[in-house]
Amino acid sequence: MIEYCEESPDGWARRVTESWSIEETPTGVRIWGDCPTCWHRSTTQVDKTVGVKGSGRAAGDPLPVAVICDCTEPHSGRPDGVNGCGRGGYIDVFLEDPR
Length: 99
Prior knowledge:
Blueprint: H1 12-19, E1 21-25, E2 28-34, E3 41-47, E4 63-68, E5 88-93
Antiparallel strand pairs: 1-2, 2-3, 4-5
């Protein structure tokens, strides 16, 4: 069993980008796949946000998204009320401008 640890291992986000699926939902996108550390199914929901005033982010720019394992399988040392093995990282997501 993989022990719970909040960290971003080298290459974790790259492996997510290469192997996870992404689909459009009515409110944004859903990114899902098997965690590169514990190999359990994990899902991240990203809501569309376009043109947050003062953010400096233009429509079409990549949106850095925190993707964190949220599996429901047991991991020793995991705090109560928390899912996943603790591993995560940032990936760039491109959301289309709905205008």
